[in-house]
Amino acid sequence: MTDAAAGTGKRATKDQALYRKVAADLGREIGEGRYGSGGRLPAEGELAERYGVSRGTVRQAMALLRAEGLVASRRGTRRVVIGTPRPQSFGELLSFTRWARSMGEEPGGLMIASATRPADATECVQLRLPEGAEVHHVRRLRTLSGRPAMVERTVFPPAVGDLVAGLPPDTVSYTVALEERGVLFADAQHTIDLCPADAEDARLLGCRPGDPLLRERRCSTDPAGTPIEWSDDRYLPDTVAFTVHSSAASGSLARRPAGDT
Fold first, then answer.
1. 181-215 burial, b for 16+ CB within 10 Å, e for fewer?
2. What are the boundaries of each domain within the chain?
3. What CA–CA distance (Å, rounded) separates 151 from 202?
4. Is the Cα torsion angle 242, 91, 63, 226 positive or negative in sign?
5. Cβ(71)–Cβ(82) under 8 Å?
6. CATH architecture of the domain covering 3-84
7. HTH gntR-type domain location, by residue (predicted)?
8. Distance from C-alpha of 24 to C-alpha of 222, rounded to nearest angstrom
9. Per residue in 160-214, pLDDT tens?
10. Which of 83, 61, 153, 63 is nearest to 115 (CA)?
């Protein structure tokens, strides 16, 4: 690779990180209700000055927020916040906290366990780690306005795990906390299936052992494509719906035999 090509690649990665940072910040503010339903976001020029970026970067951030269903554009006006509840879409990368707030729910997280341990075989594959590498494992009960909704089991590679281990136990959104520390969530591969509740799931979610739970297994990567988390999230079936958009030209939905990751 020539120096010019390498420089272009680095700039592209930096630009992607910048617009995703702007989109993540605005998404958090929208989720917190700062602009209200139907409210207008700051003008492009104001946002460009706030973040020290070009208007083109701001427009990219707005396009991402529009794709996530958080804002709409109206002719002759600034971007307007959409206030209607919506399901989680596979066409977007949205944390549990932001998704919950977008529906008017208050997200919560109760820490069950947090520890560093050797990675198992699946974790080594998903996080691209050598055998014997250590990972940081977190297990939490996630709630919607105080109601049990999901048991979250997330494993982080060493560098990210060190940051997670230093977060306060009452941290609601690891995604937001990590973004503030420079770890950006750019892409994710999702696998959705049903699984029976184990004894711990049943105790935390208030269901019976063996009851079906909606399971989402997810590997998230940063803008460079490096894995930053591997998660096994188990939802009560009546708490979440997922949507998928596909077309004849392209789509993100793939069918696989049950049990494949």
1. eebbbbebebeeeeeebeebbbebbebeeeeebbb
2. 3-84, 96-243
3. 10
4. positive
5. yes
6. Orthogonal Bundle (1.10)
7. 16-85
8. 13
9. 999 999 999 889 889 889 989 999 988 888 899 999 999 999 999 999 999 999 9
10. 153
From CA 215, how far away is CA 114, in angstroms rounded?
21
Q: Which helix (H) or strand (E) holds 89?
A: strand 88-89
Cα–chain-centroid distance for residue 24?
10
The pair phi, psi for residue 59, each rounded to 5°, is: -65, -35
DSSP letter at 101? H
Q: What one-letter code names the amino acid at 128?
A: R
Give the tens place of pLDDT for each residue, 4-23. Answer: 444 544 554 555 678 888 88
Identify the bridge partners of residue 110 per DSSP, sorted by sequence position. 141
| Structure tokens belonging to residue 174 | 């690891």
* Pairing outcome for strands 80-81 and 242-243: unpaired
The CA-to-CA distance between both ends of the chain, in Å, stands at 34
